[in-house]
Amino acid sequence: MSARCQSDDVGSFPRTDVCLEHVGCIRQTPPGILQGNIRWIGRYDLCRDIKASLTQRDFNGRYCLTMSTAVNKSRTLLPEIGVCVPNSCSADVVNQLILSGVLGTDVLDIPKYNPNTICITDPEYSAGAIAALCICSILGLLIVGGTGISVFKYLRKTIFSTDEDDKDGILNQSATQSGDSNRTESENMKDTVKGLGVIENTLSCFCAITNGRKILAIQKSGPYSHLAALNGIRVLSMFWLILFHTHQFIPEFTDNPHEVTSVYQRFSGQVIANLTATLSVDSFFVLSGMLVTYLTLNKLEKRAGQLNWAVFYFHRFWRLTPVYMIIIMLWATMRPYFTNGPLYWTMNIDYPIDNCRKYWWTNLLYINNLYPYYLHEGCMTWGWYLANDMQFYIISSLIIYFLYRYSKIGYAIIGALMTACFTSLVVVYMKYDLRKNPEQLDKVITLTYIRPWSRINSYLVGMIVGYVLYEMPRKRWKISKLGALLGWCCAIATGLGTVYGLYRTPQGIPKPNLKQYFTKLCLEHYGPRLWDGLRSACAIGKGALAVVCKGALTFN
User: Fold this and answer.
1) CA nearest 514: which of 418, 413, 446, 433?
2) Closest by alpha carbon to 89, among 50, 38, 127?
3) Contact of 68 with 116, CB cutoff 8 Å
4) Half-sphere exposure at residue 111, Cβ-oriented, CA atoms within 13 angstroms
5) N or C: which end of the chain has fewer CB within 10 A?
6) pLDDT in tens, 35-85
7) Residue spans per domain, the chain
């Protein structure tokens, strides 16, 4: 222990207000231990507000959180203890105090555990953070400038002038009055106005009003207005995904995590248990494949089978990448400054920065679902979805071409890909004996969740639906009321089976046989694809199918 830390130790001072404040900040055994409450965080804000003024020197309170790990690597749950020490004390000193029991931690059998302490300090702004703030400030100024120009043009048009071409009128009038001798000056003014017009149009691209109107616009009529029902599928799927992620993190920040996790054992809790809610991501893959196929086939028909495929790819890359890179920049540089708190710093704040410095280029190239090998090693881990979607988009052009020219070959390619991908999943599950338990969760996510060959089947189902929607008006296919009813009954039954089919399935079956593997994969892999594909047919919006569609969407 350093000399200053020892002299600042409140235990060596008489009973003062500072000492009482420190005692109030140190952890107290909380209620709910039997319900899994192992985080004894103490009084974080009170500790940080302590400012001691003594005869020899001044010091402030410093909050530290100690997380213990078992020496023998047992799965014993150990409490996380919050302590308040003078800011002259380091994390190593707190570890020594924890081991000696000075801080009231003798409740633990200390010799069996290794304390690991994090002492919280306010981070200084790094060069990367300052650069990110400068870039965001420039974008903010562009938005303000573009919005201001749009507002000024609107006011000039509606209030100050009734002539939409007022500038040209003034210039023409001045040129006429000045005569031929001033014609050069008038032309120079026109050139200046044109130059300002380019800047004006550029800034107008950043107008918050114009862009906001486009983002929030609802297409009530038009050639693709019948696809509006897909927005409902997106919203419901997003709600499901948010619900799952909320419950995924709740146990880490509650006083009764055992009570929270018991919800997963209920029948109603199956919507978030067994990772079934992650299947909601398949809805977005299905919709993406359907829209790309349907819209591209219509473009090919209008252009007599001709399409600039370079523009096809560039448009997609340019539409996603600039915003994607800005988000990665903010995530990699600004995360330490987002918020603060006793548990915020236990969430590995530094690893996104280190990972993004190493692997940001994999996100730029949309290969971050393949490299690095494990998901947690990459930059902004949830970007695996965009990587998959971009890879599927790249290969979709080949399938769409054959669907347009030779539909049977296109169907054959889709069938071959689906069979190969499903077979690979069966092999992976059997080879690695993957069961969803804490020890193998990382491997399950890596091998069966983020890889493109494990997710492309949803996209392929969407492409089939898109092709069917494209062909229906041309081949005059009609769906009877009975056929629509049977189709939706099948879709609803499949959807319910996917979510609730594994209810009360024991976790950690010793050695599942081939039948169990096949049943599990069918429920989790093809069930949601069939459900998404059939419910997407509501985009047709005709007759009884539209009525059944609305009811099914509401039910989902």
Assistant:
1) 433
2) 50
3) yes
4) 0
5) N
6) 777 778 888 888 888 887 765 667 788 888 887 765 555 555 567 888 888
7) 3-119, 127-216, 225-555
